[in-house]
Amino acid sequence: WCGPCRMEAPVLSRLHHDGINVIGLATDPLPVATVAAKARALGMDYPVGKGAPGLLERLGISSIPTNAVIGRDGKVVFARTGAVPERVIRRAIADAEGR
Predict the structure, then answer these.
(1) What's the confidence (pLDDT) of residue 65?
(2) Model pTM?
């Protein structure tokens, strides 16, 4: 999997352990069980699944990794392509929570 995805795995795992709902979507054609095992082996300690066909296009995602913070109202409050520093994503989460 891509270098930035591997670099972000520990950050996203920490967020997950801090009670933030983190979900990873893989884009490769591997079976779901293989994707999950590979994600765990790379230290992705949060749910990782496969996006349904066409999902990335519907979401406007053209490259990976793309990170999004979605507020409780279901609206995207932050989205960025490429590796996102932990302080930036934590700030986006705090903004989404109104802190």
Answers:
(1) 86
(2) 0.81
